[in-house]
Write a structure and sequence with these properties.
Blueprint (H helix, E strand, L loop, with lengths): L19 H60 L2 H20 L3 H9 L6 E7 L4 H4 L6 E9 L2 H13 L3 E10 L8 E9 L4
Antiparallel strand pairs: 1-2, 2-4, 3-4
C-alpha cells in the first residue's frame, strides 16, 4: 500500500506575512522625518532669532537717526537766526574764494592735455559761479568747458578719456552745435567733475 503526502493545512485565518522588514522600513522613515522636522524647526528658530536681532538693530539705528535729525534741526535753527545771516553769507563767500584759489589753472591745463585728442581745441574753462554748481564731490570741483572739434568722434573719444581718468569724473554734455559758415568746428559745452592732485 503506497503512502500519499498529506496536504499542508494552514489553521490561521490570514496567511503568514514577513512584516519585520516592513516595520523596520517604517521606523527608519519615521526617524528620517523626525530629523527633518527637527532641522526645519531649528532653522525657523534661528531665522526668528536673526529677524529679532535685525529688528533691534533697526530700532537702534532709527533712534540714532532721530537724535541726529533733532541735532541738525537745532543747528539749522541757530543758522536761520537773523543775527547769524551775515556771518553765514560771509562764510559762503570766503569758502568760494578759497575754492577758486585752491585750483591751479596750470595744473588744470596739464591734466586736460593728458586726455585731449589732438583734433579737439579748448575754447574756455571756468568754475561755475554758485557753490552748489561748483561742488563735484569731496575735494573735487565742477569745470565748465567749451570746446571745438573737427569731428564728433573726437569729442566722443575725449568723453571716454575723461571718464577713464582718475582725475576727472562724471561728464555732462550741456549743449552742442554743428559747424556753420563762419565756424567750421563742432561746438560743445560740457561740465566735468575734477579732482586736482596737490
Amino acid at each position: 500500500m503506497s503512502l500519499r503526502p498529506l496536504p499542508s493545512i494552514n489553521l490561521a485565518s490570514d496567511p503568514f506575512r514577513r512584516e519585520r522588514a516592513q516595520n523596520t522600513g517604517y521606523a527608519v522613515m519615521c526617524a528620517v522625518l523626525t530629523v527633518i522636522l527637527l532641522v526645519i524647526a531649528g532653522l525657523i528658530w534661528h531665522s526668528r532669532a536673526q529677524a529679532s536681532r535685525i529688528r533691534s538693530e533697526i530700532a537702534q539705528e532709527q533712534a540714532q537717526l532721530q537724535s541726529l535729525r533733532g541735532e541738525q534741526g537745532r543747528y539749522q535753527s541757530v543758522l536761520r537766526r537773523p543775527s547769524n545771516a551775515g556771518v553765514f553769507s560771509r562764510s559762503v563767500f570766503l569758502n568760494e574764494l578759497i575754492s577758486r584759489r585752491s585750483v591751479s589753472w596750470t595744473r588744470v591745463f596739464e591734466d586736460l592735455a593728458t586726455v585731449m585728442p589732438p583734433t579737439v581745441r579748448i575754447g574756455t574753462i571756468r568754475l561755475p559761479q554758485t557753490p552748489a554748481e561748483q561742488s563735484g564731490g569731496v575735494n573735487r570741483v565742477q569745470l565748465d568747458v567749451t570746446l571745438g572739434a573737427e569731428r564728433p568722434d573726437s569729442v566722443i573719444q575725449l568723453l571716454t578719456n575723461l571718464q577713464a581718468s582718475p582725475l576727472f569724473g562724471a561728464v555732462t554734455v550741456v549743449s552742442q552745435f554743428p559747424p556753420t559758415q563762419n565756424e567750421p568746428l563742432y561746438k560743445y559745452r560740457l561740465t566735468v567733475s575734477y579732482g586736482q592732485k596737490l
